[in-house]
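[Automated response] Your request has been received and processed.

Submitted sequence:
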Amino acid sequence: MEDQAVCCYRHPERETGISCTRCDRPICPECMVNASVGFHCPECSGGTHTTGGGGATGGSARRMPGGGQLRALRGGSLAADPRLITKILLAINVLVWITVLSNEQMINDWALVGQWPPADSGLRPDQGVAEGEWYRLVSAMFLHEEPFHIAFNMLSLWWLGAPLEAALGRVRFLALYLLSGLGGSALSYLLADASQASLGASGAIFGLLGATAVLMRRLNYDMRPVVVLLALNLVFTFAWSDIAWQAHIGGLIIGTAVAYGIVHAPRERRDLVQVGTCVAVFLVIVGTVLLRTAQLTG
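Generated structure:
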């Protein structure tokens, strides 16, 4: 028999898979209150709990049926620290940036470049993704040079990543982030000048922005704030000539597609659809890279 949808006890129109760690009542992201472990509902966070019979408070918390393993939205497990992956990604980006400050050669070695110019330019002619350095598609996602660049991206990662990770779970969130970043790198590789270097986590960040829009739409939230935020970011993307707009658009498209597959997967085939979506997106990225490589290498 198909599972019945679980909705927030305070907002019955909002489907959710997140529960209060004290009473197990289902709560939507708007009702989640940070706790030392997981999240509490508004009543439990205030030290009281409304029992099932009426308006009495102060009684022992009543466990709801099925309160064994907590589940995040669309199948992700709700862990003790629902922001762990976001914190790890932040730490990696900051650590790489600090390392770059003392070793600027990392920019040439790790930045996304399709193919360096000929040997007479003074650079090695065998550098670039087209020459087999596929790792640049990933390494560029964690590479920043200017302080304002990493500051803006890391603030965006925290604002967007923390609630997404709490809702989707660690594995799904990590897949969303990495695929979004790869999607941004792939579109840059395909459309940008082959010798133009690019770097930064912006592709992955735009993917998180697209995923936030998908999630808010799925939960019937007011879409106006995220639409305005997305519009402003797109304006900034095309207003400055030194911004790799291809990475932003690629990350946005991939992040939106992955998030849609995750949050709209049917319950009876949830894991299969979610994994299938990620695999299909990854194959599209690989195909894009292979196509561009064939163009550049003749």
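Summary generated for your ticket: The chain is about 55% helix and 0% strand. The CA atoms of residues 71 and 106 lie 41 Å apart.
If you did not submit this request, please reply to this message.
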